[in-house]
Amino acid sequence: MQDLPETLQYAPMPLLIVNSDDVITTLNDAAAVMGFQSGDRVADYINGMNEPFCEHIRYQPSSTIFRFRFMSSVKPCKVTPIAFAELNCLWLQDISEHLALAEQLRQVKKPESMQFRQINQLIVTAMGYSELLDVVMSDDEALSADKLSTVKQYQLEITRNLRAIQDLIDGKEKPQRSGSILVIEQHETLAELISELLRGEGYKTTAFSDAGSALKFATMNAHILQLAIVDETMSSDDGSLLDALKMAAPELPVLRLTDEGEGEGTIRKPLDFNQLLRAVQEN
Hints:
Blueprint: H1 6-9, E1 15-18, E2 24-27, H2 29-34, H3 53-57, E3 65-69, E4 74-84, E5 87-94, H4 96-107, H5 113-137, H6 145-170, E6 180-184, H7 188-200, E7 204-208, H8 211-221, E8 225-231, E9 235-236, E10 239-240, H9 241-248, E11 254-258, E12 266-268, H10 273-282
Parallel strand pairs: 6-7, 6-8, 8-11, 11-12
Antiparallel strand pairs: 1-2, 1-5, 3-4, 4-5, 9-10
Helix pairs in contact: 4-6, 5-6, 6-7, 8-9
């Protein structure tokens, strides 16, 4: 059994490395938690499969769902195979929650039309992130730390959308919170993901990936802002963005996003979104 790089060993998605005999030679922590064991044949986890799994999946569409059976559970998964350095790498995406919610939706008798539209929008969004995951995981190259961070973000967004669908089915309303949060992050996609996460928690949020526009907004709206979440590596025309923001809104609390180090008032990248939410709630 070979050792995996740390980024793969602790990746959020289950990873199996399989030899030409369909035997699992290496697996990461997520796969072990799911129930896979090194030395087993992948096909043995699927009822009625007699051929090697890696040979079988080669001729299946990417949307195929495989049901892996363990001692006390069955896990429906989409599988992305990647051939890398003469190894068969299998990334698994557990879609148990997707299917459970789909069944609950079928049992909802007469949802209101607005509820239908909201549920449909959330489903489309979740499926979009699921497709993006497929694209990221199908890259022929090994996953970098940045790509793993992206995988975590997409998984979080899928989970958030599924939770929102569940809340709609259960009739729960989003909490409404006072004040507004300013998000300034140089990567536009990450800025929008943070904003969507906070909006889902009931916060009013405005996001910028441009320092100049963010400073103008902060200057004009300092009286309604309760917090700024700022990428500390960004700069303004006059130097540090953090310094410029302090001058524009002296009383505004700031939560810094950092690539290095940790401490009070900072959140390290790649982001742990649960940690980010806790930090926002404490401000």
